[in-house]
Amino acid sequence: MAARSIIAKIGQKANFKKATTWGTAVSANESGAGLNFKNISGVICSKGYHPLVEVDMPIAQFAYLGADQPLDLSITTDMLYSPGALGTMIAMLFGTAGEPSGDGSAKTHTIKFASSISDLFGTLAIGVPGQVWEIPSVKPYSWSLKASAGGLIEGEIKAYGNKLVAPASENEDLEDATYDDRDNRLLFHQATLYVDDYDSEGSLTTTHRVNSFEFSFVRSMKADMAIGDTYCVEPVEAEQAKFSLKVGFPRYDSNTADLLSKMYSETYQMGKLIFEGATISGDDKYTLALWFPYMKIKPFGVQYEDVIKAEIEFDLLKASDAPEGFPDSMPALVLINQRTTDYLG
Amino acid sequence: MKKKFKWLSSYAVTSSGAILEPKKEYKVEQFTEKMVESWVKEGAAEYIEENQKEKKKKREE
């Protein structure tokens, strides 16, 4: 038995597994359910606390615990080419995955946007010393990927959970779960950013030497409480989904000046942020590619420092037609790794 | 007790860092019996029956 007097996260793990009924936990102690993460925040008991107030009570005599309010979770990771259970969360946010393609050991997973992501959620089981806690239903609502000036690429998933069950009722153990990978992380120097004028029959040729980027995808959701329930109903989309890409240019150069003129002329762009890692087999490499078929440059200026820099934000939109070679007319994610099964299977 | 199993699922890594490659055989003792039992139950692995020669050898021992 681990020492419960010291709540240490080091040595603890977490598993995530797709579930089918909102509010009902499933066992996440299975192969492929290991969640690669470096921090999880928001794992708290969120029951409302209601002390009774009446005018002839100078001090409260009664207090009540209310229903569980939705948990707002944040999971951070140094992103992997083979993200396993984390990939399942990302695919849930996009809404569409599927069986991968590829005959050899390298498998291509194409993850596309779906208008609605209802019924896509899973159970998160988290180890604490001597116990396992669980959140029966966790539904992702945002994903970001960012880096600046080298090193590892940090990913953050935000998700709503219905309640914390401590200790867990369905997940007593976490040790049988495996990860898809623990190595093969995305590195800054493995990235290439392409941005060109939108042309449904054109191709991507122009690379941009940026020194920071932040991709973000948010589905604003509403998690309401209903009478008689002790936790929220499954959250639903409350606004349009938003994709954006912010990039930092270390120098204001001809490339940046060109994008400035495209901003003024309101010329739509198309692009791709691609990371290529180690070889899987033959010419196939571990790959993560974010495809942006239709990009609008938001108004920007420059930072007038000793070395003049610029930060540009692209709003990532839906194109009327997917440019040639693009997986979709909306932003999409393509992963090449060794996973043989559907991320949403 | 079963001695060996074959990994049927995708390339995977355990918490302790052990790598499991598709269609490769592993000794149960490299992991825990409970762990392997769980993988077999969910279809991610299958036990390998010891062949007759190995059984005979074991009986003779």
Describe the structure.
The complex is a heterodimer of chains A (345) and B (61). Chain A is mainly β. Chain A contains two helices and 21 strands. In chain A, the strands form three sheets. Chain A has a 17-stranded antiparallel β-sheet that branches. Chain B has one domain. Chain B is built from two helices and five strands; from the N terminus they run ββββαβα. Chain B has helices spanning 33-42, 52-60; strands spanning 4-7, 12-13, 19-20, 25-27, 45-48. In chain B, strands 4-1-5 form a three-stranded antiparallel β-sheet. In chain B, strands 2-3 form a two-stranded antiparallel ribbon. In chain B, strand 2 and strand 3 (19-20) form a beta hairpin. The model of chain B has no long low-confidence stretch (mean pLDDT 88). Chains A and B meet through loops of A and strand 2 and helix 1 of B.
List the main descriptive attributes of the protein structure presented here:
heterodimer; A: mainly beta; B: alpha+beta; 3-stranded antiparallel beta sheet; two-stranded antiparallel ribbon; 2 helices
- List the total number of helices of chain A: 2
The helicity of chain B comes to 25-40%
Mean pLDDT metric of chain B:
88
- Tell me, what's the shape of chain A? globular
Q: What is the tally of helical segments of chain B?
A: 2
**Low-confidence segments of chain A, ≥5 residues, pLDDT <50?**
none
Cα end-to-end separation of chain B:
17 Å
